[in-house]
């Protein structure tokens, strides 16, 4: 019996998160035994260059020495206290220093929790109930956000999940990413009722889709005029596009920011932060309740602190950009050499190749991609030792641990695979 067969006996679908099950690409998921730097190894010892990076957190690669050694130090003193520690202050300070709009931050355990809490806070702050999200954006799996969601929900054709009561779902209004008119229309129809607009500033869960022109600026100003809070879901883009995330990159001032992934350096951490006036509505200062037994866990804080310190070093993002651009250029050249006109979207160290000709600038464009071709591409890459996300509707990530050699090898294999699929 394979490990997957065995897992399926005890765990629904054999996995603890649906996207891992290879549902949209077929076949059995690879079981991983270890990771080091840019590489992961399956239980049979096969090596892969990894561009999933645990779905984004590992911007400095697997099993980074500084993180591991700090974790060893911290674990000697205990694993959880449910009481304040200095480590929490250290990570909070770094977040406030790095992320322009954050004056205060609350740590939780996952991105889902961060978003769920941010929405509650926005509703309490504005005394309004409705929220706006964009079709194909994914903000974790809390009830209000599982309406026309991206990522695994889209991959598995469950964008609006059963189990979410209609009464909740109808408070979530849906706009089109990169279409400010669709947002304005919702505001017109729901005057003074919208608490918050939540957005992935760069969409990463319908594949990578970049904000066009002034879209984010316009969104910021619509929200300000309407007395609605703008929530930037920077769970993917935070500390990824720049030290201060997408808000620094695009010069936007959101009211609340949600963080996850990189902030935990590979351990479970989420966070939400914003202006002091808003954040001080949270219990025990204010009336908005939110809590967590393991929130601010010392190990998770330590991994986050070490990661953020590395990101703060001179030239970190310049080097990562250079490396990423080399890979993206390689992919583009490969497509050109083979006369392929597939859309390729990238920004800094995140990118997606769409099996769709032309451009992908909206959710409607993204879902026109040929997911069967993606599945073939994915399996051929995997067989040759390149690990990509097992879905068209995800991003790939470059880490600081990817070497020139990794990048060259990946470009070479990418060419071979596309040639096998499309060459004459
Ligand atoms: N881009 C989607 C995620 O990062 C979530 C991964 C998961 O659902 O396990």
UniProtKB/TrEMBL annotation:
PROSITE patterns on file: AA_TRANSFER_CLASS_3
EC number: 5.4.3.8
One Pfam family linked to the record: Aminotran_3
UniProt KW Nucleus keyword: no
Top-level taxon in the UniProt lineage: Bacteria
Reaction equations catalysed: (S)-4-amino-5-oxopentanoate = 5-aminolevulinate
Official protein name in the record: Glutamate-1-semialdehyde 2,1-aminomutase
Organism for this UniProt entry: Deferribacter desulfuricans (strain DSM 14783 / JCM 11476 / NBRC 101012 / SSM1)
């Amino acid at each position: 019996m394979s490990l997957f067969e065995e897992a399926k006996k005890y765990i629904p679908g054999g996995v603890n998160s649906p996207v891992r099950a290879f549902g949209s690409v077929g076949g059995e998921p690879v079981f991983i035994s270890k990771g080091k730097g840019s590489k992961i190894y399956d239980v049979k010892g096969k090596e892969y260059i990894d561009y999933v990076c645990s779905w984004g957190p590992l911007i400095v690669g697997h099993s980074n020495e500084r993180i591991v050694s700090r974790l060893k130090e911290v674990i000697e003193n205990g694993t959880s206290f449910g009481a304040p520690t200095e480590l929490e202050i250290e990570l909070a300070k770094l977040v406030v220093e790095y992320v322009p709009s954050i004056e205060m931050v609350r740590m939780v355990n996952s991105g889902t929790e961060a978003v769920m809490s941010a929405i509650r806070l926005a509703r309490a702050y504005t005394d309004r109930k409705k929220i706006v999200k964009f079709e194909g954006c994914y903000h974790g799996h809390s009830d209000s956000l599982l309406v026309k969601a991206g990522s695994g929900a889209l991959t598995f054709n469950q964008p609006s999940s059963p189990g979410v009561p209609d009464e909740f779902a109808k408070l979530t209004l849906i706009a089109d990413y990169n279409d400010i008119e669709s947002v304005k229309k919702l505001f017109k129809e729901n005057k003074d009722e919208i608490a918050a607009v939540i957005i992935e500033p760069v969409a990463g869960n319908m594949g990578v889709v970049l904000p066009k022109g002034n879209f984010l600026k316009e969104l910021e100003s619509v929200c300000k005029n309407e007395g609605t809070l703008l929530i930037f879901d920077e769970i993917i883009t935070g500390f990824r596009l720049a030290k201060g995330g997408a808000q620094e990159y695009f010069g936007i001032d959101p009211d609340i920011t949600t963080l996850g992934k990189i902030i935990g350096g590979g351990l479970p951490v989420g966070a939400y932060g914003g202006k002091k006036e808003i954040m001080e509505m949270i219990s025990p200062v204010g009336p908005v309740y939110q809590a967590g037994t393991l929130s601010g866990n010392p190990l998770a804080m330590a991994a986050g602190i070490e990661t953020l310190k590395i990101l703060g070093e001179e030239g970190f993002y310049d080097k990562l950009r250079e490396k990423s651009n080399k890979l993206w250029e390689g992919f583009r050249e490969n497509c050109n050499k083979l006369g392929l006109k597939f859309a390729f979207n990238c920004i800094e160290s995140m990118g997606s190749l769409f099996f769709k000709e032309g451009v992908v600038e909206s959710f409607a464009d993204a879902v026109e991609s040929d997911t069967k071709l993606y599945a073939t591409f994915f399996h051929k890459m995997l067989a040759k030792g390149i690990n990509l996300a097992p879905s068209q509707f995800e991003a790939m990530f470059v880490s600081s641990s990817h070497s020139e050699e990794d990048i060259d090898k990946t470009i070479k294999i990418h060419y071979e695979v596309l040639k096998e699929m499309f060459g004459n």
